[in-house]
Specification:
The protein has a domain at about 5-70 and about 105-115: Rieske Iron-sulfur Protein, CATH 2.102.10.10. The protein has strands at about 5, 10, 20-30, 35-45, 50-55, 70-75, 75-80, 85, 95, 105, 110, 115. By secondary structure, the protein is an all-beta fold. It contains no helices and 12 strands.
Length: about 120
């Protein structure tokens, strides 16, 4: 997994509906690089969250069809631009133009009702 470090806090768990996803614009330093603004996908399943950079490995475009709005079906996340289908757990592309590639995972944890980057 790639090393990603946040410069700021993320959000409260209750801000993400259970079974849904949202996009958060955050400042991240990826792989020890210079901190920059980027979009982060946060998927919620009960008290658990899964995080990915909001970047399709096919073209580098965002996966949301409108800011923070994602196409979710069963246990998948669908890229609104090219229709690539990713498993919500693990981020593997199982259908579409980038089959076999992965979304770039960002380790998250929930503590005291807030979503944080995992150490």
């Amino acid at each position: 997994m790639d090393t990603v470090r946040a410069i700021q806090p993320l959000c409260r768990l209750e801000e993400i509906p259970d079974g849904a996803a949202t996009a958060l614009d955050v400042t991240l330093a990826v792989d020890g690089g210079v901190p920059e603004r980027t979009s982060l996908i946060v998927l919620r399943h009960g008290a658990q969250v899964q995080g990915y950079l909001n970047v399709c490995p096919h073209t580098g475009s965002r996966l949301d069809y409108a800011p923070g709005k994602f196409l979710l079906k069963s246990d998948t996340l669908i890229c609104a631009v090219h229709g690539a289908v990713f498993k919500q757990t693990g981020g593997l592309c199982v259908a579409g133009p980038c089959r076999g590639e992965h979304l770039r995972a960002v380790a998250l944890r929930v503590q005291d009702g807030a979503v944080h980057l995992a150490p």
